[in-house]
Design a protein that fits this description.
Blueprint lengths: L3 E7 L3 H12 L4 E4 L11 E2 L1 H9 L16 E2 L5 E2 L3 H9 L7 E3 L2 E6 L2 E4 L4 H6 L5 H16 L18 H8 L3 H11 L12 H18 L5 E4 L5 H12 L3 E3 L6 E4 L5 E6 L2 E10 L8 E14 L12 E5 L1 H4 L5 E7 L10 E8 L5 H4 L1 H4 L7 E12 L3 H4 L1 E3 L10 H15 L18
Parallel strand pairs: 1-2, 1-13, 2-10, 7-15, 13-19
Antiparallel strand pairs: 3-4, 5-9, 6-9, 7-8, 11-12, 12-13, 14-17, 14-18, 15-16, 16-17
Helix pairs in contact: 1-9, 1-14
Organism: Camellia lanceoleosa
Protein name: Guanosine nucleotide diphosphate dissociation inhibitor 2
Length: 444
């Protein structure tokens, strides 16, 4: 390995693969290595035998569940906003030609012990059983304000500077009650806790607009899309993109030790006695554990079922958000369900996930509120993993480390991390001003 690379990427998690693709398209010389013999790292998708081996320690799942290869069970289950940043990255890089997507049937929110469809527009607000008649009128006025708001046009601001006005102040102007604020903040704007209430309202308004625009793209029941055959397809698609632009891939490389010079700057990566030289390293926290710190833990339940989640209009794919306040928790809980319609399970089978930022060491007890919404399950697995974030200074050591995946079941936080890393590595932003209509060709 005498060659020198601009960047060596360690790990084939989704974040690392997107970066490797973007950097290769930019003309950088990229070497991509992984200690595993499969793509996806912790964000991989497992077949039934792999799932059984991982959680039950045997490779003999029960025969009644069907063929192992019909299953693609995501280890980091997330939907994509149809108009969101990840879709823009896919179109910008032309990765859409390697993937097929399908809309997600439903988007729901848990309120006062029941599951309700999330109203996203002024007309839906008027029909929603989430609110009483007077509250509906107030909510409708607020939705109209958000829909009409254009950042560059002060005439639409109604005299408010949303970079200064907090979300709490904006909502107070419309007199909305706590229940309404709960679903707007958590199920529409997709905030993970209530800190946003005391931050500038512009972010929340933009998030609500993104939700409504994503919903309008398909005129479907949700703003989300999801790839056929599961999320394991995404890292492979970006790996293919990187290879087309000259990126080199090496899987099943043990150890992958990052080497530094006496100033502490990265100079290369050694595996099996050979060192590849490089100027920069991109990796997930597991490759440089001494440059990352633990910041939390995600608790997750994985269920195999023979029916859709009850009270979601028989949706074959669905997200349900359980806001923290409804559960008396510090963070939200997320339900994610997919089925044979997205080719992740045999006909008649559904895969559901319940996930949340862990607040105890007992996922079975902690996730009970979400699991209770699933109805009867054929099989149930529990999983917890630690979340890490980098503590190094990339300008000093040239190491760019991604953050661990959070408990959310949508990709907005994931892509933000990738784009921030890209900007740090290249000194520029990815141009995502793409024509989204061009994406329609890749959608079913």
């Amino acid at each position: 390995m005498d060659e020198e690379y601009d960047v060596i990427v360690l790990g084939t998690g989704l974040k690392e693969c997107i970066l490797s693709g973007l950097l290769s398209v930019d003309g950088l010389k990229v070497l991509h290595m992984d200690r595993n013999d499969y793509y996806g790292g912790e964000s991989t998708s497992l077949n039934l035998i792999q799932l059984w081996t991982r959680f039950r320690g045997s490779d003999k799942p029960p025969a009644n569940l069907g063929s192992s290869r019909d299953y693609n069970v995501d280890m980091i289950p997330k939907f994509m906003m149809a108009n969101g940043t990840l879709v823009r990255v896919l179109i910008h890089t032309d990765v859409t030609k390697y993937l097929s997507f399908k809309a997600v049937d439903g988007s729901f929110v848990y309120n006062k012990g029941k599951v309700h469809k999330v109203p996203a527009t002024d007309m839906e607000a008027l029909k929603s059983p989430l609110m009483g008649i007077f509250e509906k009128r107030r909510a409708r006025k607020f939705f109209i304000y958000v829909q009409d708001y254009i950042e560059s046009d002060p005439k639409t601001h109604e005299g408010m500077d949303l970079t200064r006005v907090t979300t709490r102040e904006l909502i107070a102007k419309y007199g909305l009650d706590d229940n309404t604020v709960d679903f707007i903040g958590h199920a529409l704007a997709l905030h993970r806790d209530d800190h946003y209430l005391d931050e500038p309202a512009l972010d929340t308004v933009k998030r609500m607009k993104l939700y409504a625009e994503s919903l309008a793209r398909f005129q479907g029941g949700s703003p989300y899309i999801y790839p056929l055959y599961g999320l394991g397809e995404l890292p492979q698609a970006f790996a293919r993109l990187s290879a087309v632009y000259g990126g080199t891939y090496m899987l099943n490389k043990p150890e992958c030790k990052v080497e530094f010079d006496e100033e502490g700057k990265v100079v290369g990566v050694t595996s099996e006695g050979e060192t590849a030289r490089c100027k920069k390293v991109v990796c997930d926290p597991s490759y440089l554990p001494n440059k990352a710190r633990k910041v939390g833990k995600v608790a997750r339940a994985i269920a195999i079922m023979s029916h859709p989640i009850p009270n979601t209009n028989d949706s074959h794919s669905v997200q349900v958000i359980l806001p923290q306040k409804q559960l008396g928790r510090k963070s939200d809980m997320y339900l994610f369900c997919c089925s044979y319609t997205h080719n992740v399970a045999p006909k008649g089978k559904y895969i559901a996930f319940v996930s949340s930022e862990a607040e105890t060491d007992h996922p079975e007890i902690e996730l009970k509120a979400g699991i209770d919404l699933l109805g009867p399950v054929d099989e149930l697995f529990f999983d917890t993993y630690d979340r890490y974030e980098p503590v190094n200074e990339p300008s000093l050591d040239n190491c760019f480390i991604s953050m661990s995946y959070d408990a959310t079941t949508h990709f907005e936080s994931t892509v933000t991390d990738v784009l921030n890393m890209y900007a740090m590595i290249t000194g520029k932003a990815v141009d995502l001003s793409v024509d989204l209509s061009a994406a329609s060709a890749a959608e079913e």
